[in-house]
Here is the input.
Amino acid sequence: MAKKVVASLKTGKGNNFTKVIKMVKSPKTGAYCFKEEIVHNDHIKDFLSK
Here is the structure.
């Protein structure tokens, strides 16, 4: 499924967006999980700083 998302982002207005994957540590268990989101290029630093 990720291939379809990335392929569709390369055409048209999709060049302004990037798929960002962030590793987040759970406060309860201490295990790591991944948070994926498609973010506008101007907001990438905001997403990663949260």
Q: What stands out?
A: Residues 37 and 43 are 11 Å apart (CA to CA).
